[in-house]
């Protein structure tokens, strides 16, 4: 029985030594990490929803510590005690706020900025550095979101009517696509004629140098005729383009009046169209 008892004692002693070494290592790492951090007190004037013990403390988006405790100091004041890394460049002008983490509603303490030349964080009565959170921007964003939500809920019918009218006017503009394509095609034809005239001019220059005055005279007459034809086509083309752009502008004005809430004011009369000039 003695050998068995001796082996049991040796085994138990070895397990106890291993467990003690493991606990000691964990304790040493915890003490070392604690020494590399410093306490910081953060005061929230107002709501600090989403914060919890053990939550993150981030500096410019990088985690530098965690929340150790939260307590209610007064009905409108919440005090958070956090531990942050000693290497974090927290200064007196560092801005404290809240930042959401995901869609779970959990918030983290956010520390942003701080000039290197700024003084250090002021100390509280007990010697712990203290910063006061600025939640004015967060509350302003929250109030704006609530206002937008109320506006959307209260104006669902008006928004639906506006979107339907916008779709109608968009379809009306799309129906003008063929007219716009026709105008572009006519413009291409007019420029092609002008390009042909320029080609004739290029061909006439060598004739001028060679003394062919008759050929040059005929070329000049032809160029003049082309220029007159181009002028007439351009006038008709610009008139058609003006009417199409006027139709598009009228539709766009209707859409603008709808979005400005002035749909009941009536449409402005459109100037009369000029008769189409005779094309040659």
UniProtKB/TrEMBL annotation:
Q: Which PANTHER family match?
A: BLL5892 PROTEIN, MCE_MLAD DOMAIN-CONTAINING PROTEIN
**Where is the region Disordered?**
242-280
Q: The Mce/MlaD domain covers which part of the protein?
A: 41-113
**Entry superkingdom:** Bacteria
Database matches in InterPro entries:
Mce/MlaD (IPR003399)
Could you identify this protein by its name?
Phospholipid/cholesterol/gamma-HCH transport system substrate-binding protein
């Amino acid at each position: 029985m003695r050998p068995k008892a001796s082996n049991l004692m040796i085994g138990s002693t070895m397990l106890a030594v291993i467990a003690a070494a493991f606990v000691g290592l964990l304790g040493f790492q915890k003490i070392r990490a604690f020494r590399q951090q410093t306490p910081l007190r953060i005061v929230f004037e107002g709501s600090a929803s989403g914060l919890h013990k053990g939550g993150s403390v981030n500096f410019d988006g990088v985690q530098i510590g965690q929340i150790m405790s939260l307590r209610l100091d007064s009905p409108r004041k919440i005090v958070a005690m956090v531990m942050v890394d000693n290497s974090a460049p927290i200064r007196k002008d560092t801005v404290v706020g809240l930042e959401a983490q995901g869609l779970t509603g959990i918030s983290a303490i956010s520390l942003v900025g701080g000039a290197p030349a700024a003084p250090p964080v002021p100390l509280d009565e007990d010697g712990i550095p203290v910063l006061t959170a600025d939640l004015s921007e967060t509350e302003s964003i929250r109030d704006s979101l609530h206002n937008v939500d109320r506006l959307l809920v209260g104006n669902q019918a008006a928004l639906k009517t506006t979107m339907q009218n916008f779709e109608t006017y968009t379809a009306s503009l799309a129906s003008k696509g063929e007219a716009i394509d026709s105008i572009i095609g006519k413009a291409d034809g007019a420029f092609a004629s002008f390009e042909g005239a320029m080609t004739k001019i290029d061909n006439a220059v060598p004739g001028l140098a060679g003394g062919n005055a008759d050929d040059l005279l005929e070329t000049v007459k032809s160029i003049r005729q082309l220029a007159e034809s181009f002028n007439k086509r351009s006038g008709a083309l610009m008139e058609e383009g003006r009417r199409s752009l006027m139709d598009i502008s009228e539709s766009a004005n209707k859409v603008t009046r709808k979005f400005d809430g002035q749909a009941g004011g009536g449409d402005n009369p459109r100037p009369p169209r000029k008769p189409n000039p005779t094309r040659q």
